[in-house]
Amino acid sequence: MKITALEALVAAIEEGSLRGAARRLGISQPGLTKLIRELEIELSAPLFHRHSKGVLPTPQGQILFEHSQKVLSELISAKEMIQQMDGQMQGELNIASVPVAMMLLIPETLRTYSRAFPEIRLRISEEMFIEQLQKLRRGDVDLVVGGIPGGLPPGEFITESLMETQMVVVARQGSLHARATKLAELQHAPWIYTGNSQQTGYAASLFELNGMSPPPAGALVNSTLALLSLLGSGDLLGLMPEQILLNTLGQNIVKVPVQEPGLPLTIGIIIRSSSVISPAIRQFISHLHRAAYQLTK
Fold first, then answer.
1. Torsion of CA 83, 84, 86, 89, to 10 degrees
2. Which of 91, 96, 144, 287 qualifies as a FRET site for 162, CA 20 to 30 Å off?
3. pLDDT averaged over every residue in the chain
């Protein structure tokens, strides 16, 4: 199969028309149609349904489209990696960050990395850990930055620690819960869970670590902004790394003085063990370590 034919197929499906695809690729419509026809002959299968408004992929076309996207993406990555090895720091990095890392490490890392390598395009996605791990498995992201969990499949991932922290109980300044001295006093108060369910949130882990059942979920969030907004606007409780309280992001948020220690958390990097680590990724990891050092010194 020709790379140009795969590019034609992807463009036609993404644009929804042969005319749009030809315009996007800078070739004539008959030339693009010929490339796709060659694919259909090679595969002995129709790849498109044609209709009055354009084209839609057949089931066979959809399968080839999904695999073609991966092939073309890998070729782009290979080209960028080779250029980076020759000192041309250009290309794109896709970084997945969970909310804790987004609050603590990503802002400073982006500041220094973007200044050092302005021609590297950075794409940052913030979601919960399970979604990010799936993206890493599919190759949609280059690395994940967040809490390193136990039970990762052996041999599938490589992890590297960046910093140790504690998730401490927090509330807004003036909250009726802000003076609690024991975790048991807060067991029936509403908590903010950063996750997809009450069972997977940090709050559940903290209470289980201290031999108590998880508190009720007053809200489930999957972003840093939502966590901070809810903490600052009501009598909800949450867990947050201690360092955030010293940051401007943590203004009006106070640590609740419960006697139980906070939830220990290792924040680090997760990469597929099969990944080839490009110079751009190595440099990004170096800047992550620098940001972590600034927080812990």
1. 100
2. 91
3. 85
